[in-house]
Amino acid sequence: MAELIxxxxxxxxxxxxxxxxxxxxxxxxxxxDSIPTTAFGDSVETLIAGIGRATLNVVFNLDFAAxxxxxxLNGLVGTATAFVFKPxxxxxxxxxxxxxxxxxxxSLTPINAExxxxxxASVSWPVSGAITRAxx
Length: 136
Description:
Helices cover 4% and strands 43% of the residues.
């Protein structure tokens, strides 16, 4: 089994633009509601999966150059856009799967200034629709 340390080579493309070199943290969370199916006479709770949802969470170092964070994300606020997320920059494989979907860009903080601190944008966007996992 291959283990990763820190995800320093994770890759993320948003709207076809690779922003991997600007992200400092990223996660894709997938979860489902649990629906009780417990009936009279049952001695333990039973459950089935309900509605699923996913969220793409990323912290970017802000960059205002062409084809970088601001230029890429500014025009996407309020729209759904394609993303592809991989654990490493290596080719997609069984040990480096890609996760692709459509994120609804619900918010963006284009300017985040603090004395002596790096300007970053922390986003948490819901995924609209299914996520596709590829291994080849």
